[in-house]
Amino acid sequence: MTGSDLDDLVVHMSGVGVRRGKTHLLADVSWSVELDGRWVILGDNGAGKTTLLTPAAAGRRSTTGEVHVLGEQLGRVDVFELRPRIGFCSAAVIARVPPQEKVLDLVVRAGYAVLGRWREDYD
User: Fold this and answer.
1) Global pTM?
2) Which residues lie across from 29 on neighbouring strands?
């Protein structure tokens, strides 16, 4: 897929697979989300919803296939510059938030794509 083909896509996955150890969590997933598109991902606990969305949010690379987010191919872009342009909310995220984190600090740092206040100060 060329750059111009990706102009109207927020997410484009082609042949995506995610494997942890010997277990295949996703296999051969192809999915595109258009700029004005709306999707709902439904499934039972453990069905793979978060596993599908994590590469789409530039949170973790897939094991196989290609993932383009906001016109950038994961693996060929600095995800730390891409992540501030992405909103992602999941129950899985809470496990990465320090227990002493204040809600206000969490909301402010979301604009910087940072979870948890370590030594940083934000305006």
Assistant:
1) 0.73
2) 16
